[in-house]
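Can't paste images in this forum, so I'm doing it all in text. The chain is below; anyone willing to post the predicted structure tokens underneath?
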Amino acid sequence: MTGYHAGSDLHSSLAEVEREIAERRPEHSIDPTLDRIADLAHLLGDPQRACPVIHITGTNGKTSTARMIDALLRARGLRTGLFTSPHLSSMRERITLDGQPLDARRFVELYDEIVPYVAMVDGRHQVPMSFFEVLTAMAFAAFADAPVDVAIVEVGMGGTWDSTNIADGTVAVITPISLDHTRYLGSTVEEIAEDKGGIIKPGAVAVLAQQPVPAAEALLRRAAEVGATVAREGLEFGVLDRDLAVGGQRLELRGLRGDYHEIFLPVFGAHQAGNAVCALAAVEAFAGAGDDDVSGEPVPLDETWVRDAFASVTSPGRLEIVRRSPVIIVDAAHNPAGMAAATEAVTEAFTFTRLVGVLAVAADKDVPPMLDQLEPVVSDLIVTRNSSPRSMDVAKLADLAEAVFGPDRVHAAPRLDQAIEEAVTLADEADAAGGGSDGLTPGTAGVLIVGSVITAGDARTLLLPAGQADEGEPTRQNGASARAEPEPAEPAPDEPDTP
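Text version of the structure:
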């Protein structure tokens, strides 16, 4: 290995690189301009123009939708680059080639290749480059060097001023928009949609998930202004039917090119079905007129590889079962809309008679509406903090929780590991009380850990066997039977799969 970090062993080099990147201005510190990232991209030869881009924004569902698009395109035989954020365990998760995170050696080499140019840009601008800007540049450089046939790029926050917006997506996907990051993006859904709509570029196809009316109107105005074609969930495409299945759900989908039947999706929730059909429409739009028949009529994608692609989907940290006996589910929900989707999916897909919640959130989040979504679903709530310095103080979170749950149902733990241990104890006690006056039976209590992507990542690190928590060695979703009582079992074995 050559470069600035060549003198150390690989593990030390990777740790040093990640530390240097992390010491930069954080993702939540916004300075709205594309000047720095555009300057760096120009020095690197504008790698964002090396291949077509499918660009994804929205409030919830971006990462899951991006992974589904990636799976579909790889099943079609294309070489893909995928850029997502934030990460659960390692920065390397954010940049994947053909479904695999950059290996440690390439991640270090890539950083060493661009860091002299980063220093040049820092010297040209009053505000130095941020953590996210550097990773964005690394992603585009990695995709150009590979090279890939198509890049699937998720925004970090918003759209117009997000550093990924130096790319002109041929397809722009907008997942459901709701209130989040209001300090930076606007105080109304319409204002947030106007910002996110900035990724819709002239001549692109805008694939719109179902949206609140003000958001839909803002996005349609943007599409009209730039001459983009619009495809809307519920009109041009949509979920025709969905049924619960063992380990997930079975879908009937209407795409832009035809209908697709008996699609098994191994993740839970109506929101994931919506993500799936948006991903399908995005890939159909990307296929374009080149896949029409001789008469110009659109030809559906091959249903066999569509089925294979969706069946291979995993979504770490999104209603992911990480342990059994008791069943422990981890979800990255971090805003009211995400929490509503998560609790609805848990209620639909599992038959828990008692569910213990563990909650750790960022201090700047709108917590009371999240608690309102949790209260009908969880019997007890253990509030704690995650590893981020932005994590809300436990005492403050407890006060907010007690106002919704009452003091008898709220417990506080200073650390996440202690909170999980207490939650498992409560679930085990509930199972041990099976047949008692409360009607519980053994094996029907569970634990739900939620609040942020960092909370989900920390929980995975604590609960999964060594190597599985890092998405470099991803784990297959454990197959809990939908609408079936969770049965006690040993932790799932190490089964690496494609994220």
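The first helix runs from residue 10 to 22. Residues 97 and 295 are 36 Å apart (CA to CA).
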